[in-house]
Design goal:
Length: 383
């Protein structure tokens, strides 16, 4: 295998069929090529591919690389990073594939991107859009293409439907991407310290459904799918509405982050309160940690993330646990009192949250930590 980095998606199964081009460079061992990933010859699939891609199959991977003016090895790295399966030297590529290669290689040649960064761009784009495309087919197009009348075939419905939807979905995708790019750029340029553009101090929260494994044995697949979808949708809406960023969903768990501690705390408590109000939902537990976080390809990494995950695993049902740094940050910004004695001395103050220290305990891989219980602060005299 000629792909240099070990995280290449060449090692993972990619989508096959129309629109999944990937070349194999001449140095790739024969036994590592998936010969089952040949482009489909189904007439409808080919028609749909031509409609979606806007061009006919014209090139083999080698011909596409040569037309783009890049080496076969670099072409393979780009295509694999985008998540496309090896197809040997079948004639399955279009002018758009050549143009994509030429653009990526041009960014490298112009010095705007390093070669590893260009591969990361290809990978992040491929992974994100692959998930989007799968969702649209599984949850959207599949339902819409059910024959509306007896005797009609899916073939008779799919093509005109895709023809109508394609330009609208494309415009919407570009609009959302530009909006997200503007928001992300705005967050970065507001960072005073250049080093924090990559390693930033954030509040990271995990929210986890309690007893999900038991639910998988008790519920039917359709019921389980509806529950997970409801949880993910509700969580995503709450995180976005209150100024956080949803990093990813993992079925029974969501990972989010926020630039400030109070925002992360508000989201956590809102999640608990919302799920409690839904009798169909299991209990929820949330863990939040505050500290330096490394961001890569839309994901977050580091000790702070690991600590948030560990706090979630030890949190009681329908409760939020935070680490010492998160508690300190809430106190520093005036969102919570450093101590109840301080709050009493100030006549209760205007604090939003209350913090209660818990027993110190060992946390796997992170030593001994002192978690704090986070709740809403209720006024002493509601009147």
């Amino acid at each position: 295998m000629t792909v240099d980095d070990s995280t290449s998606s060449a090692s993972a199964p990619g989508p096959t069929g129309p629109g999944t081009p990937i070349g194999r460079d001449q140095h790739t061992p024969h036994h590592e090529v998936d010969h089952t990933a040949q482009p489909t010859a189904d007439p409808l699939a080919i028609r749909l591919e031509q409609l979606i891609l806007g061009a006919e199959r014209r090139y083999t991977p080698f011909q596409a690389a040569r037309s783009a003016g890049v080496s076969m090895e670099l072409a393979s790295r780009f295509w694999r990073a985008m998540g496309f399966a090896d197809i040997g030297q079948a004639k399955a590529l279009t002018e758009a594939d050549v143009l994509a290669l030429r653009r990526l290689a041009g960014l490298v040649e112009a010095g705007l991107l390093s070669e590893p960064m260009a591969v990361q761009v290809a990978r992040s784009t491929g992974q994100t859009t692959a998930r989007l495309a799968e969702w649209q087919i599984d949850s959207f197009l599949e339902g819409l293409t059910e024959p509306p009348e007896p005797g009609m075939t899916r073939t008779e419905v799919t093509y005109p439907l895709v023809e109508l939807l394609l330009p609208e979905l494309e415009e919407f995708l570009v609009y959302v991407w530009r909006r997200q790019l503007a928001a992300a750029t705005g967050r970065v340029v507001q960072v005073a310290d250049d080093e924090e553009m990559v390693d930033r101090r954030l509040a990271v929260g995990f929210a986890d459904l309690v007893g999900f494994t038991r639910l998988t044995r008790r519920l039917e697949e359709e019921e389980l799918g509806e529950l997970v979808e409801s949880f993910e949708t509700t969580s995503a809406d709450l995180v976005a509405a209150h100024g956080g960023r949803l990093i990813k969903t993992l079925g029974d768990e969501v990972l989010y982050c926020a630039d400030d501690a109070a925002t992360a705390a508000e989201i956590a408590l809102r999640l608990i309160e919302t799920m409690e109000a839904d009798p169909q939902m299991p209990e929820l537990r949330v863990g939040i940690a505050f500290g330096t976080v490394t961001t890569r390809m839309g994901d977050v990494f580091g000790t702070t993330v690991n600590l948030a995950s560990r706090l979630t695993s030890i949190a009681p049902k329908d409760a939020v646990l935070v680490d010492g740094a998160m508690a300190e940050e809430l106190g520093r910004t005036g969102a919570a009192p450093v101590s109840e004695k301080e709050a009493e001395a100030e006549g209760g103050g205007t604090y939003r949250f209350a913090l209660q220290p818990m027993w110190q305990r060992p946390v796997r891989g992170l030593g001994v930590v002192e978690p704090w219980s986070l709740t809403r602060r209720k006024p002493k005299n509601p009147a």
